[in-house]
Amino acid sequence: MFSPIKRIAAIHDLSGYGKVSLTAIIPILSSMGFQVCPLPTAVLSSNTEMPGFKLVDLTDHMRDFIEHWKSLNLEFSAIYSGFLGSHRQIEIVKDFIKHFWHPQQLVVVDPVLGDDGHLYDSMTLDMVSEMKTLISQADIITPNLTEACALLDTRYNEKMHESELKTLLKALSNSGPKIVIITNVHKSDKKKQTFVYAYNKSDGRTWKVQCDYVPAHYPGTGDAFTSVLTGCLMQGDSLPVALDRAVQFISTAVRATYGHTHDPRAGIFLERVLPNLSAPFRPSSFELLEQE
Ligand code: PXL
Question: What is the pLDDT of residues 194-230, one digit of tens each?
């Protein structure tokens, strides 16, 4: 079915409070000019960092929803998945991509599995194996360092040397994705800096972008980062420009939130910075590391 607006299937949970998943993804990609079609995996009262959250799992309804979309002959310019709650949900996403895939499409998989060297409590080794097969169907993946190591069965080391990071990037791209982006990387010599590394298999170039350090953790910044990155690439930006715009957006959002007296578990004040997505781009920190 023809659409004058590019459509994105977003397979994520909907958390009523605390800016994560669909409540971050929809406003970001809508304000960048895309029509987001959410396929919710679960509905939660809040993100899982808020104590006492309530959850309704929608796994049993996802296939029915997908059948309806098939009957409408929907086409998507992008498919974007994030946190998935079970082995079955990962299988459903794999089947979704197989059915709705077409050559001009961008398939973005954020393989949410863990952070800081540990898998999240809800993740099983079985889900890690299933995630390995899901990333093989993606064009772009955005693991953090913990997830990159888990997907490659490599020991996590918080302060990896740049040469080891390049090995991880290439090993992950060998499993399928054209673009591999590893977020949240700390450097051994500079404690208070984090970086994003990216490898583009199509031109053999590796990029590094430096992120501002703020001593606070806000859930949902990964979802916001991958959403801005996806939107920028779909708007026609090059990979380094898309990375730079996404990093700058998150950094501004975190700074806009940090000065307030605010429970960080509730996430960033996204609405304060959404208009920045329409601002002219000013390159800041991207750096070419290597070209094969
Ligand atoms: O991707 C972040 C995320 C997604 N979904 C839920 C979450 C979080 C982070 O806390 O709680 C339900």
Answer: 899 999 999 999 999 998 888 889 999 999 999 999 9
Residues having CB closer than 6 A to ligand 1 are 13, 15, 20-21, 44, 47-49, 82-83, 112, 219-220, 222-223
Per DSSP, 51 falls in state T
180 phi/psi in degrees, rounded to 5: -120, 130
Chain segment 65-98, per-residue pLDDT in tens: 999 999 999 999 999 999 999 999 999 999 999 9
Q: Tell me the CA–centroid distance for residue 214 and ligand 1, in Å.
A: 20
Which residues, 6+ apart, have CB-to-CB distance to 95 below 8 Å?
A: 66
Distance CA 22, CA 227 (A): 10
**Residue 142 Cα to ligand 1 middle (Å):** 15
β-pairing verdict for 42-44 and 14-15: parallel
- 159 in helix, strand or coil? coil
- CB hemisphere CA count around 139 (13 angstroms): 19
The angle, 0 to 180 degrees and rounded to 10, between the axes of the packed helices 239-258 and 221-235 is 140
The structural domains of the chain, with segments of one domain joined by +, span 7-288
- How far apart CA 166 and CA 146 sit, in angstroms, is 15
Task: Determine whether domain 7-288 maps to CATH 3.40.50.1980.
Answer: no
